[in-house]
Design brief:
The protein is mainly α. The protein has a domain of about 80 residues. Helix content is about 50%, strand content about 0%. It is elongated. The termini are far apart.
């Protein structure tokens, strides 16, 4: 299991139809590119690299299963199916509903008196008559 990730990349390349330009653009580095990168970082395999960099407390040792590779057209159709499940709800942004409390310092210094805005001088009746 030393180079299982590199093997998966090679297997994926062979399962996507060669006629698909999508696969060529998005398949990732070649095995020789991976070997060069591993030499550069000073490790023997991708598994060893992951073991050295990802803390064991968050590492999931299970095997990922993605299913069969899809063409670009199939991927777009799938994403449209997923997006169609979204529900369009009423947006309350700008309608007077605010679900958060804005700290006074933010409200005063950012919302009411943004940086770069010259201070407003209040003109009293007395100074207005004098001028």
């Amino acid at each position: 299991m030393a180079n299982s990730t590199a093997i998966i990349a090679v297997e994926t390349t062979t399962t996507i139809p060669a006629s698909s330009g999508f696969a060529h653009r998005h398949i990732g580095p070649s095995p020789s590119d991976v070997a060069a990168m591993l030499r550069t970082v000073g490790t023997d395999s991708l598994d060893a690299l992951i073991a050295e960099t990802v803390p064991a407390s968050i590492l999931d040792p299970g095997q990922l299963t993605f299913g069969p590779a899809l063409t670009e057209t199939e991927t777009i159709a799938y994403l449209r199916t997923v997006a169609a499940k979204n529900q369009v709800l009423t947006s309350l942004i700008g309608q007077g509903y605010y679900g958060t409390v804005v700290p006074a310092v933010i409200q005063r210094n950012i919302l009411e008196n943004p940086p770069g805005t010259p201070p407003t001088r209040h003109i009293s009746r007395r100074s207005a008559k004098a001028g």
